[in-house]
Every structure is written in C-alpha cells, then in structure tokens.
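Hey, I was hoping to borrow your eyes for a little while. For a while now I've been wondering how a particular protein folds. The fold is given in discrete form, as structure tokens running alongside the sequence. Could you read through the record and tell me how the tokens relate to the sequence? Take your time with it, there's no hurry, and the full record follows here:
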Amino acid sequence: MSRVKEEKELVTPGDTIYSGNELYPNSGVYEEDDKIISKYIGVVEYGQNSVRVVPMSGRYMPEEGDIVIAEISSVGYNNWRADLKSAYDGMLRIDVAVDEYIDLMLVMRLL
C-alpha cells in the first residue's frame, strides 16, 4: 500500500507509519486495522519486508517552538502548569488555551 512516514522520520506514539498489509510490524510498532502504528517516540526504519521504530533515548530538553505532550499538574488562577516528563515544567496561560476538553492531556507549542 503506502508509506505514511518516510525512513528516518521522527514519530510519536500513535502515529500511523504504514498503511497496508505488505509489511510486517517489527519492534517498536503494532498493527491495527491494516495500519502499522508507532509505540514510541523514535525514528522509522524500513526493512526489506518489515518496519520498526527505533526509540530515542536520553533526556528530552525542550526548546522554543517544540510541540510537546504534557499532563496538567496544577491549575492556577490564570495559567496551567504542565508536567513535560522532562527536567523542566511547562506553563500555559489560560487565555491562549483551546476550549476543547482533552482528558487532562494537552498538546502545546513551547514559546
């Protein structure tokens, strides 16, 4: 069928990497409804007849402009503090937040 993500492309958990049944899922991925999906944050590697995700290792150091997944750890009067599972916490002002409920998980761009 088709590659949704290219070789060496960075993926996050839940990203569809490949759509179809010509390739077999290898390490770091799982198959669901003829799609191969990433289990980890990592890099896509295609084999002759398989695909896998090589997980990234080391501690994440957030930079301006990064899109991150965070868990809200506390709510203040005009901001939310977000646990980035990093050495740093994130902070999001409520006036710039979306009005969707996302099960206490939040995707945000670091500014």
Summary: The chain is about 0% helix and 50% strand.
